[in-house]
TrEMBL record:
InterPro entries reported for this sequence: AAA+_ATPase, ABC_AA/LPS_Transport, ABC_transporter-like_ATP-bd, BCA_ABC_TP_C, P-loop_NTPase
Pfam family, one: BCA_ABC_TP_C
Domain of life (superkingdom): Bacteria
One GO term describing the cellular component: plasma membrane
UniProt-recorded Gene Ontology molecular function terms: ATP binding; ATP hydrolysis activity
SMART domains in alphabetical order: AAA
Lineage, uppermost ranks: Bacteria, Pseudomonadati, Pseudomonadota, Alphaproteobacteria, Rhodobacterales
Protein name as catalogued: ABC transporter ATP-binding protein
Keywords (A to Z) from UniProt: ATP-binding, Nucleotide-binding, Transport
Length: 269
């Protein structure tokens, strides 16, 4: 699959954007990730699933630069990624959402979404004082991007509302909006459906598909619930006890005996 592939619904998936090569991650004596390799391709929706404690969050944290792997290499856009701080990874066009919503509760939806533009703001405080006009033009341009994302995710009606007053499902959508405002090349979603009711899950699924379709954003999500991601994803990595036990299309992993056993709690040792 070096040259990409065409999905069942006719979308063209490109070459490799990110490649995880033999990643191992240890926390003292705990091996959270054991020698895992997989790739993420341009334009695809790639899921990482697995039961509790499988190592999904740890893997997402390696991708986002929050954890440095104990062994192995992360390749991004054809180059081995050096040790970077998370904000430097973000500057390379990787944005993420968090499992436990990380928004400013007292701030409005619009202001929260604007924080997603911080990496794009070039004018520092001194520049703002010296060249007020330039800083203002930049602010207007950033606001336009934020407003476009707000329209796209259909949260115009709450743009002035403090986030703390919103129900859970809408907060998750605001978090998605903030990540999108960064105009990422690779969007990482940490359990985007966790804690949602059926209707909220359907809405979130639709928005994830729309983002991928409209902006061509490559998306990697981790999810506990296998059912939720099967309709959404092009390819799925399945983890269990830190190991990769499956990797392929939803149909392939659904019929993989090791995956079935892991979800039924059968030991593979
Ligand atoms: N910071 C840490 N320090 C020590 N151990 C950790 C740390 N983070 C994760 N672990 C351990 O690594 C293993 C994998 O955890 P991780 O949170 O990555 O799994 P997960 O698949 O995301 O689980 P869940 O679905 O419950 O969120 C677990 O045994 C966990 O206890």
């Amino acid at each position: 699959m070096q040259e990409g592939y065409t999905t069942a619904d006719g979308r063209k998936i490109g070459g490799v954007v990110m490649e995880m090569k033999n990643i191992t991650l240890r926390f003292g004596g705990v091996v959270a990730i054991k020698d895992i390799s997989f790739d993420i391709r341009e334009g695809e929706i790639r899921a990482i699933i697995g039961p509790n404690g499988a190592g999904k969050s740890s893997m997402l944290n390696v991708i986002s630069g929050f954890y440095i792997p104990s062994e192995g290499e992360v390749w991004y856009r054809g180059a081995k990624r050096p040790q970077l701080r998370p904000y430097e990874v973000a500057q390379q066009g990787i944005a993420r959402t968090f499992q436990n919503i990380a928004l400013f509760e007292g701030m409005s939806v619009l202001d929260n979404v604007m924080t997603g533009r911080l990496g794009h703001m070039k004018s520092g405080l001194i520049a703002q004082a010296l060249w007020k006009g330039k800083a203002e033009a930049e602010e207007v341009a950033n606001r336009e991007v934020a407003e476009r994302v707000i329209d796209f995710l259909e949260i115009q009606h709450i743009r002035k509302t403090p986030v703390g007053r919103l129900p859970y499902g809408l907060k998750k959508r605001v978090e998605l909006a903030r990540a999108l405002a960064a105009e990422p090349k690779l969007l990482l979603l940490d359990e985007p459906m966790a804690g949602m009711n059926v209707e909220e899950k359907e809405d979130m699924s639709r928005f994830i598909l729309d983002v991928n379709d409209e902006f061509g954003t490559t998306i990697t999500l981790i999810e506990h619930d296998m059912g939720v991601v099967m309709d959404l994803s092009d390819r799925v990595v399945v983890m269990d006890y830190g190991k990769k036990i499956g990797d392929g299309t939803p149909d392939e992993v659904r019929n993989n005996q090791a995956v079935i056993d892991a979800y039924l709690g059968v030991s593979n040792d």
